Automatic annotation (TrEMBL), chain A:
SUPFAM superfamilies: MetI-like. It comes from freshwater metagenome. Residues 75-269 form the ABC transmembrane type-1 domain. This is Unannotated protein. One of its GO terms (biological process) is amino acid transport. One of its GO terms (molecular function) is transmembrane transporter activity. Keywords: Amino-acid transport, Cell membrane, Membrane, Transmembrane, Transmembrane helix, Transport. Its main location: membrane. InterPro entries: AA_ABC_transptr_permease_3TM (IPR010065), ArtM/GltK/GlnP/TcyL/YhdX-like (IPR043429), MetI-like (IPR000515), MetI-like_sf (IPR035906).
UniProtKB/TrEMBL annotation, chain B:
This is Unannotated protein. It is found in: Cell membrane. The keyword Transferase does not apply. Coiled coil: none annotated. It is a peripheral membrane protein. Keywords: Amino-acid transport, ATP-binding, Cell membrane, Membrane, Nucleotide-binding, Transport. One of its GO terms (molecular function) is ATP hydrolysis activity. Residues 9-243 form the ABC transporter domain.
Length: 286, 249
């Protein structure tokens, strides 16, 4: 039924006219304030004494075109590292979270280790983990491994750190599944591990998709840090081009590409979160 | 062969403490095959705890539980195997939210009874059509009414063919207009010969279907008797007071 085609009372007509007027007003106000803000930024920047030099060395179109191939090549490496690390992080994060829930006394040492691991790597800056793994593991001179590529060491370091974060997300998810679900599973004769695998985890994973997406977005930009190990990724590629042209534009270019890469993921995460929260407002338990 | 003269379920000297608080204070009871035993009593009298202890999703503090003569509370007994033989239905349904109604029912059939997928599915479907939910197999729990959810939850337990079915105030969380359909299902289970131990606030229903009624008061059996006689001639003062309080509601 289309409400607009219905006869409406005078009171409703008045309300609608008022709302329409308000909408019109707010459009004008936002337009004016946006223009004013843009003008301030524009003239504020252009008026700075060093703007011409900054423009030359950071926003140089010719340099950007020249540097593009190497930077985009590097970005492809970043993408490969991202995919590999994301998969490993999901696996180890879930594993750590499940270990944390094991209550049997046999698992005591495992549980303590998992807890210690999470504490350690949530606190340790990623850059230090990268240095320790990147220069420490080759330093062990494990000849049978041959020369380990820098990107592999980078994947290892990212996995080590992010697994700790993600395990906490999964743990929160497991705890958020109401205990009555586990009771119902156990009352039917399902074992502890069956109820975990068939009832608790599927529901926990669904609940943590939005926070997981956040960690994925963070990982997406942190893959740029593998450049400190010498992998020729987008950041390192940009660095090489910066040295070649004595111009910082390649950094801006690399940064822009990272942002472009992140935007679809960010929008997707927003949409997923919105869907989840609207479901919860309907009182639907997932 | 069913031995009709020995109890299907026997509880001896059951005690349950939560810390210092004693919730079940030495309860003995027997449920014979095909019998319905009703547990009544005010909130906090220990009805739910008693049922949870029988299913042993709560540890006992003391006492023994026998199922067809086997002491299932003995140390070393595989509790998962026993729970599969003692169905428990909760006040709040507790259907698995991520599974369709059909998969809620087949989950334990497949993973506990190791039934193959198609067989479990057809068994679940036949149960669902019997209770008029044949077209709801693919629905998720949050898309159907409370009465439908509770009936599905009962079927989930019954499909496992438990030796005894425990019903924990299965109508208490329902809107009054939905209570009837759940009670109808229990009536049908009774005529099918299911052995049931149920905690309930539905006194007239208990009087109608139960063979034996137990009145719990502060974790102890205060008075018990054959159903009609129990309701018509309560003997002890607190029973009389409780029954009149419930009737005047």
């Amino acid at each position: 039924m289309d409400l607009n085609n219905q006869e409406i009372s005078q009171a409703e007509q008045k309300r609608r006219d008022y709302r329409k007027q308000q909408r019109k007003r707010s459009v004008w106000i936002s337009l004016a304030s946006t223009l004013a803000f843009a003008a301030i930024v524009w003239f504020g920047l252009l008026a700075t004494p060093g703007w011409d030099r900054v423009e030359q060395s950071f926003f140089n179109w010719d340099v950007a075109v020249e540097a593009f191939p190497r930077v985009i090549d590097g970005l492809l490496l970043n993408l490969r590292v991202l995919v590999a690390a994301a998969i490993l992080v999901l696996f180890f994060g879930l594993l750590l979270a499940v270990i944390g829930t094991l209550k049997a006394p046999v698992f005591f040492p495992l549980r303590v280790l998992a807890k210690g691991y999470v504490d350690l790597f949530r606190g340790l800056p990623l850059i230090i983990v990268l240095y320790l793994v990147g220069f420490g593991i080759p330093g062990l001179r494990l000849e049978f491994l041959g020369r380990i590529p820098a990107e592999v060491l980078g994947i290892a370091a990212l996995t080590i750190t992010y697994s700790a974060y993600v395990s906490e997300v999964f743990r929160a998810g497991i705890e958020s599944v109401h205990s009555s679900q586990r009771l119902a599973a156990r009352s039917l004769g399902l074992s502890y591990s069956q109820s975990m695998r068939l009832v608790v985890l599927p529901q926990a994973v669904r609940k943590v998709v939005p926070p997981l997406m956040n960690d994925f977005i963070a990982l997406q930009k942190d893959v740029g840090l593998i450049s400190v190990l010498g992998a020729i990724d987008a950041v390192r590629g940009a660095q090489i081009e910066v040295a070649k042209f004595a111009n910082f534009t390649p950094y801006v270019l690399a940064g822009l590409l990272f942002v472009l890469l992140a935007i679809p993921t960010i929008r997707l995460a927003d949409r997923i979160s919105a869907r989840f929260s609207s479901r919860e407002q309907q009182g639907v338990s997932l | 062969m069913i031995d009709w003269n020995s109890p299907r379920l026997k509880v001896v000297g059951l005690k349950k403490f939560y810390g210092e608080r004693q919730v079940i204070n030495g309860v003995d009871l027997e449920v014979f095959p095909g019998q319905i035993v009703a547990l009544i009593g005010s909130s906090g009298s220990g009805k739910s705890t008693l049922l949870r202890c029988v299913n042993q999703i709560e540890d006992l503090t003391d006492g023994q539980i026998f199922l067809d003569g086997e002491e299932v509370s003995a140390p070393g007994v595989d509790q998962d195997r026993i729970r599969a033989q003692i169905g428990l239905v909760f006040q709040s349904f507790n259907l698995f939210g991520h599974l369709s109604i059909l998969n809620n029912i087949t989950l334990a059939l497949r993973h506990v009874k190791k039934m193959d997928k198609d067989k479990a599915k057809s068994l679940a479907m036949s149960w669902l059509s019997r209770i008029g939910l044949g077209d709801r197999g693919d629905s998720y729990p949050d898309k159907i009414s409370g009465g439908q959810q509770q009936r599905a939850a009962i079927i989930r337990a019954v499909a496992m063919e438990p030796k005894v079915l425990l019903l924990d105030e299965v109508t208490s969380a329902l809107d009054p207009e939905l209570v009837g359909e759940v009670l109808d299902l229990i009536r049908e289970l009774k005529s099918g010969g299911t052995t049931i131990l149920m905690a309930t606030h539905e006194l007239s229903f208990a009087r109608e279907v139960a063979d034996w009624v137990i009145f719990l008061e502060q974790g102890q059996i205060y008075e018990q008797g054959e159903a009609v006689d129990f309701f018509e001639n309560p003997k002890l003062p607190r029973t009389i007071e409780f029954l009149s309080r419930m009737r005047s509601r």
